[in-house]
Amino acid sequence: MRTTAASLASDANGENEDWYSASARSLVVLDGATARTDTGCQHGISWYAAHLGAALSEGALDLSASLPEILAGGIARVAGLHPSCDLTHKGTPSAAVAMVRLAGEFLEYLVLGDVSIVLDGSNGIVAVSDERVSQTAASERRNADTFAIGSVEKNAAMVQMKHAELAMRNRADGYWIAAADPTAAEHALNGLISTGELRRFAVLTDGAARIVNPFGEMSWAGLLDLAETDSPEAVLRRVREAEAGDPLGVRWPRNKRSDDATLILALDVE
Question: What are phi and psi of 221, to 5 degrees?
């Protein structure tokens, strides 16, 4: 498997809360969830994403364990690294997770939270995306979308939205994400695809995927083509250009002008 990758922070002077690793047999991508409230934790979102990512990358080496088992073990392992923090706090650091691993003649994949895996195979392109988080706090999201990015009203509405969203985190009628409870891994989207049917695939955070949804400036096929013929960074630059053309979120209402964006493209999958 041949991979190329790119990751850009939302702000050139800011900290990137995405995290990724890529090896010849496995890929791991995390998107740290933005903290807009207290977290009960002395560590930051980047700390959480980096430690969980490292645990998952190591865990993927154990071919006897399934990806959900590896994710559950990783969540438990990171929780054990900061027991003095309030891990029962609703805002405890969390991250969306995507994992891909080659296993014999098959590719295993897992998605938990708003990250995506785009598979280009013999039956066309299939995007595996977890949309459950965006389906929570619907009225609060609509209200936040009415305000311009950067305004006092927008910021206040975003805090209200975050509280409503956190109330639905890691529960059956809400959404699931990696935080402190290993059982969240049981609710990940996961599957297998034969490598013989697979031409290429991409793993990306929602900050990169926004060029397709909600911006609609590219199709999944176009995104894969640009990443392959040019580079994953070329895709991320297209994202930044689109964001810069709509700085207040008028054309594309969204939570923030720019988001951390990560994209890994994999070719020669065998």
Answer: -65, -45
Return the structure tokens found at 37. 């409230």
CA distances (Å), origin 33, targets 4, 127, 178, 196? 24, 21, 10, 35
CA-nearest of 36, 3, 34 to 260 is: 34
Which residues, at least 6 apart from 74, have a Cβ–Cβ distance to it below 8 Å?
52, 55, 56, 59, 178
151-185 per-position pLDDT tens digit: 999 999 999 999 999 999 999 999 999 999 999 99
**CATH class of the structural domain 2-7+16-267:** alpha beta
pTM value surpassing 0.85: yes
Residue whose pair of structure tokens reads 């939570």 in the numeric block: 255
